[in-house]
Automatic annotation (TrEMBL):
Protein name: Xylose import ATP-binding protein XylG
The enzyme's E.C. designation: 3.6.3.17
GO MF: ATP binding; ATP hydrolysis activity
ABC transporter domain residues: 9-63, 170-221
InterPro entries: ABC_carbohydrate_import_ATPase, ABC_transporter-like_ATP-bd, P-loop_NTPase
Family annotation (SUPFAM superfamilies): P-loop containing nucleoside triphosphate hydrolases (SSF52540)
Primary enzyme class: hydrolase
Keyword terms, alphabetized: ATP-binding, Cell membrane, Hydrolase, Membrane, Nucleotide-binding, Repeat, Sugar transport, Translocase, Transport
Keyword tRNA processing: no
Length: 231
């Protein structure tokens, strides 16, 4: 009985290793999924689907938490699945990805089917027009504005993981913000954006360093309550 269990475990390990290699994950099959990054976890989910030998794979925003490198792996994988006669529905708002891998593109707006066309007959502008219901002349129109007084300046902000203190969560970030401006902070889950903002509010639990200026005056923010009194 013991021998059979060991054999079964070995077979499972090797099968898992093969599936992980198929999605280009170079990790030990014994690794706990919770120890992986979100992008790696996404690829593990795809490997699980492949293990079931599916004929139809539905992916809903699969690259939302992936890095550029992981996204490239994902798109290559989808193309390989197609070559092996596996059908795929790829749901995404990232039009460059949709254009790269699709044979047909279906546009849904407000719960209604707007149209389905061959991908090679549609440009990204065509897709956008179908998505919004009107022609968009400029996705990012230039809006001239006057640069006003500086409200906030951050210089060389770095922060370390509260437990694994050798891991840097924020690495030498600098930016400034002026009166009347809106500063958007973008990044994948786990990129350090939340930790950066926590440092600004003095609520980050780990070690952090850098210079913060409010109205040209350098401040030391260690607790949120102090920030509320800074004018």
């Amino acid at each position: 009985m013991t021998h059979k269990c060991i054999t079964a475990d070995n077979e499972m390990y090797l099968r898992c290793k093969t599936l992980l290699q198929q999605v280009q994950l170079d990790i030990d099959p014994n690794t706990r999924v919770g120890e992986l990054g979100l992008g790696q976890q996404q690829l593990v989910e795809i490997a699980k689907a492949l293990n079931k030998q599916v004929r139809l794979l539905i992916l809903d925003e699969p690259s939302a938490s992936l890095t550029e490198k992981e996204t490239a792996i994902l798109l290559t994988l989808v193309k390989d699945l197609k070559a092996h006669n596996i059908a795929c529905i790829y749901i995404s708002h990232k039009l460059n990805e949709v254009k790269e891998i699709s044979d047909k593109i279906c546009v849904i707006r407000d719960g209604e089917h707007i149209g389905t066309k061959d991908a090679d007959t549609m440009s990204e502008d065509d897709i956008i027009t179908m998505m919004v219901g009107r022609e968009i002349t400029s996705l990012y129109p230039h809006e001239p504005h006057e640069i006003k007084d500086e409200i906030l300046r951050v210089e060389n902000l770095s922060a370390w993981h509260p437990i694994n203190t050798h891991i840097k969560r924020v690495n030498n970030v600098s930016f400034n913000l002026h009166s009347g401006e809106i500063l958007g902070i973008a990044g994948l889950v786990g990129s350090g954006r939340t930790e950066m903002v926590q440092c600004l509010f003095g609520s980050y639990q780990g070690k952090y360093e850098g210079n913060i200026f409010i109205h040209q005056k350098q401040v030391q923010i260690k607790i949120v309550l102090k920030l509320l009194h800074i004018k």
